[in-house]
Amino acid sequence: MFPTHRPRRLRNNALLRDLVRETQLSRDDLVYPLFVHEQGGAPVPIPAMPGQMRHSIPSLLDIVRETAARGVKAVLLFGIPDHKDEAGSGAYAEDGIVQRAVRAIKEAQIPVQIITDVCMCEYTSHGHCGAIVKGDVANDPSLDLICRTALSQAQAGSDIIAPSDMMDGRVAAIRRTLDEHGFSHLPIMSYAAKYASAFYGPFREAAGSAPQFGDRRSYQMDPANAREAVKEVLIDIEEGADIVMVKPALAYLDIIRDVKQATRVPVAAYNVSGEYAMIEFAAKAGVVDRERIIKETLTSIKRAGADLILTYHALDAAAWLA
Ligand code: PBG
Predict the structure, then answer these.
(1) Considering only the top CATH level, what class is 25-320?
(2) Which residue minimizes the CA distance to atom 7 of ligand 1?
(3) Is 194 annotated in the active site?
């Protein structure tokens, strides 16, 4: 009898397809990244990321409340300071914008996990992710700034510390700093395999964090390397990372898969600003079905192996998901 195999039998109707579906995307998987600046008042739209805003602290509280109400469990906070300086001092100021935002969310008792991004690039006048020595980003001197930033976020009430700077040894240094100051319970989610990617373009416009000279290729990874991603991830786990992240997501689904297979910790994937912008502008142009393409995209990231997905589509997706 030809053909012997009829895979179409299991695609016959929607109920049957539900029964055999391999990957279930859930709102439990999602993390919503948010931008907070020092100005008051209404949120300011980010032109490169239609639908996303720079928030004041009051408008941040509104959107975080809505995020929690939609069943999303975590937000990731990025601060946009009014003043930048050579040392990025706004990143670790006690009354820095992220520190104030974290305190405000905690005071409002919104049931959400607050993840704070630890990096210098939004706070330095040169826009690099660490300290500049002789025209280059110096690794070890940057660790002190990064640890001060992580500690001040912990003191403000952050629930998860997420270093995104890609300096060597920063997970161990942050872990030690947190432990010495009574924060041994705080998890670290490291941006472990973070590539030097053009997909961050819209974010840099949103955060005003583009490097003023050179680029980030001496610290972020070469997009051509896959085995090195596993090496980076294993080093971070060794140093104490509780969750490891691959970033960006879509052009790196193979890396998400490799990392998932090589580890036993939760794997996060960052569906970054450029990936978001491509969908939004294509949808605006009427060339793709926005809802279907967002669901398909997020499902592909989950299918590749991500346990957590950081996405600017978190609110929409949560509304569509079970
Ligand atoms: C900070 C940081 C960046 C992103 C997250 N943390 C920018 C960069 O490395 O240039 C990018 C996020 C996105 O594009 O959505 N280092």
Answers:
(1) alpha beta
(2) 200
(3) yes
What single DSSP character describes residue 82?
A: S
pTM over 0.90: yes
Residue nearest to atom 8 of ligand 1 (CA): 200
Residue 249: alpha-carbon gap to chain centroid: 10
Q: How many Å is the Cα radius of gyration of the chain? A: 20
Catalytic residue among 73, 84, 194, 302: 194
Q: 226 CA distance to ligand 1 centroid (A)?
A: 20
Q: What CA–CA distance (Å, rounded) separates 300 from 211?
A: 31
3-state secondary structure of 81: coil
Q: Cα(221) to centroid of ligand 1, in Å?
A: 13
Query: What is the distance between the alpha carbons of residues 54 and 57, in angstroms, rounded to a whole number?
Result: 10
Answer yes or no: are the C-beta atoms of 30 and 269 closer than 8 Å.
no
Nearest residue to 193 via CA among 148, 137, 258, 136: 258
SS3 270: strand
All structural domains of the chain with their residue ranges: 25-320
237-266 burial by CB neighbour count: b if 16+ within 10 A, else e?
Answer: bebbbbbbbbbbbbebbebbbbbbebbebe
Question: What does the pLDDT look like over 221-249, one tens digit per residue?
Answer: 999 999 999 999 999 999 999 999 999 99
Whether the per-residue pLDDT at 217 is higher than 90: the answer is yes
Distance of CA 312 to the CA centre of its chain: 9
